[in-house]
Amino acid sequence: MSEAVVETIELTKRFGGVTAVDRVNFRLGERELRCLIGPNGAGKSTFFKCLTGQYPLDHGSGRILIRGNDVGGLRPHHIVRMGVGIKTQVPSVMNGLTVMENLWLAARRTHGWDRCGSEVQRVVDEVGLGDIARRTVGELAHGQRQMVEIGIVLAQEPWLVLLDEPAAGITGAEVERLVNLIGQINKTASVIVVDHDMEFVRMLGADITVFYQGAVLTEGHVDDVLADARVREVYIGNRA
Amino acid sequence: MKFWPSIGRLRWGWFLLGAAVMLLWPVFFDTHTPTILLVWALFALSLGLMWGYAGLLSFGHTAYFGLGAYVYAISVVNIGESTVPLLLAILIPAIVAAIIGAMMFYGRISDVYMGVITLVVSLILFKFMSATAGDQYAIGDARLGGFNGIPGFAVLNVPGLPDVSLFGVPMYYVAAVALLGCYLISRWLLARSFGRVLVGIRENEARCELLGYSVPAYKTAIFSISAAMAGLAGCLFANWAEIVTPSVFSLRSAAEVIIWVIVGGLGTLVGPILGAIVLGMLKLLLSEQTVIDNSLILGFILVVVVLAIPRGVVPALQGWFGKRTRIRTQRAVHVRARRRVAAPAPGRTS
Ligand SMILES: Nc1ncnc2c1ncn2[C@@H]1O[C@H](COP(=O)(O)OP(=O)(O)OP(=O)(O)O)[C@@H](O)[C@H]1O
Ligand SMILES: [Mg+2]
């Protein structure tokens, strides 16, 4: 078996009495695309935040290996410098700055001063931000801000991409563009996508990991998982 | 991307105009009051750089201003020649701020606590310096003097020539050059990656961290740079006043500089400078009369500005001029377009 890009061993995260992530063993291979689904409060976002160090790991609550390096205890900026990019669930962008300025800051960390300009242009074209490139991000609609944040992640040129609900607030033809874009990203990076929208998940056509009450309920190919009675029950039970 | 609209750039025309006015001023007018106004402007610039661009408000920036003043007085009494004391007055506040800043920012305290800590630091210095009246409180030959402070030390001299004092008009020029120099340094910092990342941190600290920037390092650096400028301003203040007393640390001056920056305009460099000069002058004029207490008037101005133009005077003016020129160019484009429509196409006869 080749070295995993991400591997968690018995990863656990508690908030007081709530166990948000419960002994999760997760493995993501090179260039793999994986969807993470599960009802509200299943612990998907918390899982991401553990991977990026936004929630520090408590002692004795499992391990996180990124390309074989134990990242438990590292600050987020150290982890992302390894080559990890994250789009958070609530768009985390620099609202007072223009789209291009946002992208510039993302590009600057990995590129020299002289290359940032062309890098920003590349991302603007790739994500299709041309019309709004000079607008202030705070003025944009939710869906547009989502795309800006995906652009920010792209500008970092990461080899591990975490996308937390990228399709929220995005509609119609835009969804198709997003699916293509994720495919594009996946050519050079391993990707984990969290989403609720089953239609979107189906379009991505990747393997799925289902979270339920902090633990992994099941894992497998999209068609098998969506046909699984337990998964249906978990979803329908929670949606009702 | 050479240019970031959210930060703006140095406008050489305005800069040279301002520099010319400042440098030619002594030819026509008295310099005693303008000198202190420039010193206050430098102090306000130091706070405006850190607060307006990195989003860090120091409630007690007088700590570094006052440290600069005391460090200069104490070391010039001991050394005599003023070059080293001047450098120490910049360096020591910078180091103190770097230590306090590192503790605050690497300790990840919230903005509110940062305000409290910076305020407490300047209050402690105020209390401590006020309590140093006895003979036992001396550093080398310099007696700290408690509430009466340290009087009668040597003012700045031409570097290497201890007998040639920079007094009066030369002192004015020192203050002017210090202000212009610090302004250029600030602009230079803002035009670099360093300044851009600071603005990014002001806008979204968590995102900058997720981009891989070490947020505490950036904050500590700008805090220290700002304290260095405040220390320089304090040193020049000591030279102007020729006495240093604990009042340099007072709550009143800490509040004043915050008001100058807010009224002038956060997120600009010219705003704090003009705010300090105009409100500083007003303060001096008002202190000559006894009918109304002048902090009342300063407070009133603050309330009016915060309610009427929350962004501050300079950004509001910039916005207003920007809009007017945009409208004018738009109108010109429209007029040209209409002419083109109205003019018969060449070659066609009616
Ligand atoms: N910072 C926190 N403090 C306390 N509890 C938290 C915190 N963050 C998350 N939780 C709890 O942990 C559980 C998992 O939350 P999480 O946000 O990871 O779920 P999720 O799967 O992302 O849900 P959603 O689909 O709604 O985004 C929830 O019960 C939530 O209330
Ligand atoms: Mg979530």
Could you please describe the fold and organization of this structure?
The complex is a heterodimer of chains A (240) and B (350). Chain A is α/β, with parallel strands linked by helices. Chain A has two domains: 4-83 and 158-239, Rossmann fold; 92-149, no CATH class. Chain A contains nine helices and ten strands. In chain A, the strands form two sheets. A six-stranded mixed beta sheet of chain A has the order 6-7-8-3-9-10, with helices on both faces. A four-stranded antiparallel beta sheet of chain A has the order 2-1-4-5, covered by helices on one side. Chain B is mainly α. In chain B, a hairpin with a 2-residue loop joins strand 1 (138-139) and strand 2. Chain B is 70% helix and 4% strand. Classes of the chains: A alpha/beta (240), B mainly alpha (350). The interface between A and B is medium-sized, with 32 and 23 residues. Bound molecules: adenosine-5'-triphosphate and magnesium ion.
SSE topology sketch:
The complex is a heterodimer of chains A (240) and B (350).
Chain A: E1 6-15, E2 18-28, E3 33-37, H1 44-51, E4 63-66, E5 69-70, H2 76-81, E6 84-87, H3 99-110, H4 113-127, H5 142-155, E7 160-164, H6 173-186, E8 190-194, H7 198-204, E9 207-212, E10 215-221, H8 222-227, H9 229-239
Parallel strand pairs in A: 3-8, 3-9, 6-7, 7-8
Antiparallel strand pairs in A: 1-2, 1-4, 4-5, 9-10
Helix pairs in contact in A: 3-4, 3-5, 4-5
Chain B: H1 12-28, H2 32-54, H3 62-79, H4 83-106, H5 111-130, E1 138-139, E2 142-143, E3 150-151, E4 157-158, E5 161-165, H6 169-191, H7 193-203, H8 205-210, H9 215-241, E6 243-244, H10 251-264, H11 270-286, H12 294-308, H13 313-342
Helix pairs in contact in B: 1-6, 2-6, 2-9, 2-10, 2-11, 3-4, 3-9, 4-9, 6-7, 6-9, 7-9, 10-11, 10-12
Bound molecules: adenosine-5'-triphosphate and magnesium ion.
